[in-house]
């Protein structure tokens, strides 16, 4: 096995989290990731719409390993009369997972404003009982309150904020006893694992068992991340979180190999190859199924008509699309599975 540099992985995760990258707003996170690849001396090309494909070397039977850099978030739907911001979600961010979070609002002139996602009315002591018990709804009773002295829609427009501006949530990373708590473990933790593995592979000089590309996609959360592949690719493997839950086998200390998501089963042969590699290497893994609201970067590739096998694996992660949590054990297990499957 290639040694797992946990410190590099966590520091890379922190670097990625420090850049807001709500789906569609990819330029800064792409530049950061390209800079990391330059540091590692790994060749790559960028995709016109946003995305990076790195060439890791190897010969024959090419495989893409994909992990996504876009985050779920919000967008300004319109400016309310009182100077608050009405919202719509970008990706699967539900109101109950966003209320009371601090945010940054990005306008199209390059300016950034801070604020908080709040219920309206926003003070529980002066809220009628029936409103206390009403679920949060972006259209009706959830808004962003800006950290600005604004009292009208015109005040907000004068700042340069308008419909279509991006609202990014703060990650709030905390590390405790091996647990990693943060927004956007999905999927920046997997990106950090992949980059740590690429660094170790480059430094080791170990040969790959086949041709390998690393694909850093920018649109996974809205379903069109990996619709462009290099010529000759036979397989695609997505690295993404494995949500935990009452009916799930996924565990925050283990790597999950996906049998099926909400759209369709993963390729039987490729999934079995990953399972066998994990078993042979003694990696702590589980098989799991994720329905009814889950997909990975494999799905758009298959739907785009590519003749590829597809599979996915990732770290067991709780509170998906909220304040997520995983453990460094699961990250190491993902790292080890990359080695077990791809190193000759």
Fraction of helical residues: 25-40%
Uncertain spans:
none
Cα end-to-end separation: 11 Å
Any idea what the CATH superfamily of the largest domain is called? Answer: Zn peptidases
What does this structure look like?
The protein is α+β, with helices and mostly antiparallel strands and about 350 residues long. The chain folds into two domains: about 5-70 and about 185-340, 3-Layer(aba) Sandwich (Aminopeptidase), CATH 3.40.630; about 75-170, Peptidase M42, domain 2 (Elongation Factor Tu (Ef-tu), domain 3, Beta Barrel), CATH 2.40.30. About 25% of the residues lie in helices and about 30% in strands. The strands form three sheets. Strands 1, 2, 3, 12, 13, 14, 15, 16 and 17 form a nine-stranded mixed beta sheet that branches. A hairpin with a 5-residue loop joins strand 4 and strand 5. Helix 6 (about 270-280) crosses helix 8 (about 330-340). The longest helix has 20 residues, at about 185-205. It is globular, with a radius of gyration of 21 Å. The model has no long low-confidence stretch (mean pLDDT about 95).
């Amino acid at each position: 096995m290639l040694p797992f540099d946990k410190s590099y992985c966590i520091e890379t995760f922190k670097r990625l989290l420090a850049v807001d990258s709500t789906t569609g707003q990819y330029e800064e996170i792409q530049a950061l990731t390209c800079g990391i690849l330059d540091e590692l001396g790994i060749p790559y090309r960028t995709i016109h719409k946003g995305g990076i494909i790195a060439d890791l070397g190897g010969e024959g039977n090419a495989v893409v390993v994909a992990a996504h850099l876009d985050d779920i978030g919000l967008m300004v739907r319109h400016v309310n009369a009182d100077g608050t911001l009405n919202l719509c979600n970008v990706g699967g961010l539900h109101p109950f997972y966003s209320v009371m979070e601090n945010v940054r609002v990005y306008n199209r002139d390059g300016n950034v404003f801070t604020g908080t996602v709040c219920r309206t009315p926003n003070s529980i002591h002066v809220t009628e009982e029936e409103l206390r018990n009403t679920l949060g709804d972006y259209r009706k009773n959830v808004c962003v309150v800006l950290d600005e002295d604004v009292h009208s829609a015109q005040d907000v427009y004068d700042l340069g904020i308008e419909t279509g501006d991006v609202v990014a949530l703060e990650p709030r990373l905390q590390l405790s006893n091996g647990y990693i708590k943060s927004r956007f473990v999905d999927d920046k933790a997997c990106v950090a694992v992949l980059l740590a593995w690429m660094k170790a592979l480059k430094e080791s000089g170990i040969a790959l068992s086949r041709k390998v590309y690393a694909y850093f996609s920018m649109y996974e959360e809205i379903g069109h991340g990996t619709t462009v592949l290099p010529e000759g690719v036979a397989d695609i493997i997505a690295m993404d979180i494995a949500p935990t839950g009452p009916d799930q086998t996924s565990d925050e200390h283990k790597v999950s190999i996906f049998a099926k998501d909400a759209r369709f089963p993963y390729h039987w042969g490729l999934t079995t190859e990953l399972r066998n590699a994990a078993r042979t290497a003694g990696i702590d893994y589980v098989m799991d199924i994720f329905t009814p609201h889950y997909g990975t970067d494999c799905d758009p590739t298959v739907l785009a008509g590519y003749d590829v096998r597809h599979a996915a694996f990732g770290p067991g992660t709780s509170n998906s699309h909220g304040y997520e949590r995983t453990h460094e054990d699961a990250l190491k297990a993902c790292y080890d599975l990359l080695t077990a499957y791809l190193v000759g």
